[in-house]
Amino acid sequence: MIYEHRSQPLLERKIFLVRLLKHTTVSLLLLSLFGGILGYRILEGFSWIDSMLNASMILGGMGPVSPLTTAAGKPFASFYAIFSGLIFLVGAGVFITPVAHRLIHRLHLEDDNDYTRLPIY
Predict the structure, then answer these.
(1) 2-59 pLDDT, tens digit each
(2) How far apart are the C-alpha atoms of 88 and 94, rounded to whole Å?
(3) pLDDT digits (tens, 9 = 90+) for 75-105
(4) Is residue 2 assigned to a domain?
(5) What is the pTM for the complete model shown?
(6) What is the dihedral of CA 33, 38, 43, 48, to 10 degrees?
(7) 94: domain range?
């Protein structure tokens, strides 16, 4: 995603919130949860609901609900648990990026030293 240069004006609040929503969606839902659901569905043969439950519980840090029975499902669950721990940190970084960029951009605007407009939102 491309951000505005410091010489460009600050984004409108509505456009900024859309950017924040896109970052959140990509970082948390699409990559993490759906990958886990598909893995449990394909490798363990769980139903869609059970796959979603197990993926959600591991992603949330609670652990699996249903016992694993296949040889392919156990390494997947191990990998997915490690991935879920790491994706939480990466997802937090992706979520914070537009906020940090907006703050830094706000602080670098050439505004004739007008420090009365400090809020970043």
Answers:
(1) 777 767 777 788 888 888 888 777 766 667 888 899 999 999 999 999 999 999 899 8
(2) 10
(3) 999 999 988 888 777 777 777 887 887 788 7
(4) no
(5) 0.57
(6) 100
(7) 13-108
Which tokens belong to 16?
A: 């900024």
Report the length, in residues, of the chain: 121
Query: How many Cα atoms within 13 Å fall on the side-chain side of residue 57?
Result: 13
Pick from 11, 19, 30, 34: which is nearest to 95 by CA? 19
Report whether 80 contacts 37 (CB < 8 A).
no
Residue 29 CB: number of other CB atoms within 10 A?
Answer: 12
Q: Give the chain's mean pLDDT.
A: 81
Rg (alpha carbons) of the chain, rounded to whole number: 20
Q: Which residue's structure tokens are 């937090």?
A: 92
Q: Which amino acid is at 17?
A: L
Whether 61 is in a domain gets the answer yes
CATH of the domain at 40: 1.10.287
